[in-house]
Amino acid sequence: MNEISDLILDNIEALVVIIDFETHEVLYLNKKANKIYGNKIGEQCRTFLHYKKK
């Protein structure tokens, strides 16, 4: 990402997680998503985004 897009994405009131469609690897989290999930860049999205059955 670049400075301008980081600035925009970090200052919106939404969780932003960008994932590689083929590998399901997390490529980017904005500040709000990072605050909730922690730094998950490089991990598989299924490790924290998918619903977990009780």
Summarize the SSE layout with pairings:
Layout: H1 3-10, E1 17-19, E2 26-29, H2 31-37
Antiparallel strand pairs: 1-2
Contiguous runs where pLDDT drops below 50 for at least 5 residues = none
Count up the domains.
1
- State the major sheet: 2 strands, antiparallel
Distance between the termini: 36 Å
| Helix/sheet category | alpha+beta
Mean model confidence by pLDDT: 90
Integer-rounded radius of gyration: 12 Å
β-strand percent reads 5-15%
Helix content: 25-40%
For the biggest β-sheet, the strand order reads 1-2
Number of E-state strands: 2
Helix-strand string: HEEH
Shape: globular
Can you count the helices?
A: 2
Description of the structure:
There is one protein chain. 7% of the residues are buried. Strand 1 (17-19) and strand 2 form a beta hairpin. The protein has one domain. With 54 residues, the chain is of the alpha+beta class. Helices cover 28% and strands 13% of the residues. It has a two-stranded antiparallel ribbon. The chain has helices spanning 3-10, 31-37, and strands at 17-19, 26-29.
